[in-house]
Design brief:
This protein has helices spanning 9-22, 26-42, 69-77. The protein is mainly alpha-helical and 82 residues long.
Length: 82
């Protein structure tokens, strides 16, 4: 099959480097790279183990409301807010 590809500059540099190292034709280097990449993409991923985080009881909130951030920070830093 004959087709035209537009390659990113970094991909083109890597292909050229491999071609020069192996003394191979560009066609064979591109085909090998595509075969390896596509094989890897087509392999099914192993199912990941489900991760869960346990819950911890932190007790009741020491402030009546957390809506006022300035008040919460003042209490946390120990300043006399009122």
């Amino acid at each position: 099959m004959r087709t035209t590809l537009s390659l990113d500059d970094d991909v083109s540099v890597m292909l050229t480097r491999v071609r020069k190292q192996r003394g191979a034709k560009m066609k064979s280097v591109v085909n090998e790279a595509l075969r390896r990449g596509l094989t890897q993409l087509l392999q099914s991923e192993k199912p990941r183990k489900q991760f869960s985080t346990g819950s911890v009881d932190l007790g009741r909130c020491r402030l009546p409301s957390l809506d006022n951030v300035a008040e919460v920070l003042a209490v946390a830093e120990g300043d006399d807010f009122r």
